[in-house]
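Structure first, sequence second, as always.
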């Protein structure tokens, strides 16, 4: 099948056409021609005012709740939401039921998603059943297709076990993705510990919970020479620790969820449970430090932290509500809204595309003739209001309904087909 993409601005620092407005001809999933004007006949023409195209985006932190809680999200609904959000690949976390901690579970995800429009990259658990007691079958999961290992938002408290995992994964260039925390400090916390939590009378989660857990890990990384990534930094102190670790040339990379850039703990004065997330929204100082960390290339990745929850678990009093928001459809526009005047568009796209691919060891995607077409269509200047009607997730726990955002996603090209919003 032939597609022609008309007059799209190419955003790809690896491409010889970077920054240029071009027509792109795709034939049977391969980029056949890039030119100022293409007049060939095609089965489908994609012509959208203000269209930009980049290598396909990768979400390094998402939950689709399959298997175990498919009523919250299943692979089909999650992938539909991912395509709407511009993602051609999604890393699925291990916190399924049962946990993604063995070869069979990895194979299930790969097989079940093979026919769907977006690539699924399983993240296997570090420990059996995510219980933090014994190491899971890391090598077997790697051979089956797991791209990394994480206990999702559970901190591996046993330092000897984490040392073992960091050493073991070195044998096959595996990647540990960890959640920086100190459970003894964060346990039962509802929100960021600060002036707002005191004002509201809610138990806080101190910044040092994240920073102390991160510090411990960085000692272990330096000791073992292992490789580690943090998807969900939330504090200014954590950004500083990553900066120092990179100065030491440790094999450390980091990411941030888009909503951590947009919201601060001030929004919780309304006690709306849709804003209950982990890590919690922090102070404006922290949000500014995260944005600066992205600009200074201390933070490498922006992710969605897509965490679907049903009404029964989310629409409760704040204390009893589950953590999490859906964000895979809105991650790019949220980040773009905050960062568009702080970093270049090319740098922003790197946080969604090139950097995740490099960290995960995925094939490079670039917009050049002869390359497999895997790309995202978007307009970074277009504004829109995200509505419940546009949401295709099985869940509706989004804090962005009714919010005006800048940066509209128009779809993706992946696995030989275009999915246009």
């Amino acid at each position: 099948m032939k597609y022609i993409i008309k007059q799209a601005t190419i955003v790809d620092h690896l491409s010889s056409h970077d920054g240029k407005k071009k027509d792109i001809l795709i034939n049977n999933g391969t980029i056949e021609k890039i030119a100022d004007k293409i007049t060939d006949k095609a089965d489908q023409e994609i012509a959208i005012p203000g269209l930009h195209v980049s290598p396909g985006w990768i979400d390094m932190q998402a939950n689709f709740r399959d298997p175990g809680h498919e009523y919250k999200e299943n692979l089909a609904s999650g992938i539909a939401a991912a395509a709407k959000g511009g993602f051609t690949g999604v890393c699925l976390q291990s916190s399924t039921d049962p946990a993604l901690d063995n070869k069979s579970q990895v194979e299930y995800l790969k097989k079940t998603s093979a026919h769907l429009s977006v690539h699924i990259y399983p993240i296997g658990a570090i420990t059996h059943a995510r219980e933090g007691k014994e190491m899971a079958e890391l090598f077997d999961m790697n051979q089956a297709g797991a791209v990394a290992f994480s206990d999702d938002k559970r901190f591996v408290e046993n330092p000897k076990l984490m040392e073992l995992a960091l050493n073991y994964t070195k044998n096959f260039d595996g990647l540990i993705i960890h959640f920086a925390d100190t459970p003894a400090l964060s346990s039962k916390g509802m929100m960021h510990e600060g002036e707002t939590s005191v004002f509201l009378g809610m138990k806080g989660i101190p910044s040092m919970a994240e920073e102390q857990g991160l510090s411990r890990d960085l000692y272990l990384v330096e000791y073992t020479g292992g490789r580690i990534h943090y998807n969900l930094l939330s504090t200014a102190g954590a950004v500083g620790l990553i900066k120092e670790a990179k100065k030491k040339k440790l094999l450390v990379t980091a990411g941030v969820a888009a909503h951590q850039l947009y919201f601060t703990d001030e929004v919780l004065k309304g006690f709306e449970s849709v804003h209950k997330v982990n890590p919690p929204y922090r102070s404006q100082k922290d949000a500014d430090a995260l944005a600066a960390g992205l600009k200074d290339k201390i933070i490498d990745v922006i992710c969605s932290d897509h965490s679907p929850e049903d009404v029964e678990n989310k629409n409760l009093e704040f204390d009893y509500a589950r953590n999490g928001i859906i964000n895979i459809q809105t991650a790019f526009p949220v980040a773009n809204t905050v960062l568009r005047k702080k970093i270049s568009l090319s740098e922003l796209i790197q946080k969604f595309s090139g950097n995740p691919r490099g960290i995960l060891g995925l094939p490079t995607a670039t917009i050049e003739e002869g390359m497999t077409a895997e790309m995202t269509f978007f307009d970074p200047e277009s504004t829109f209001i995200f509505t419940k009607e546009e949401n295709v997730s099985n869940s509706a726990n989004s804090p962005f309904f009714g919010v005006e955002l800048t940066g509209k996603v128009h779809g993706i090209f992946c696995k030989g087909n275009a999915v246009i919003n």
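Margin note: Residues 57-360 form a domain with the TIM Barrel fold (CATH 3.20.20.140).
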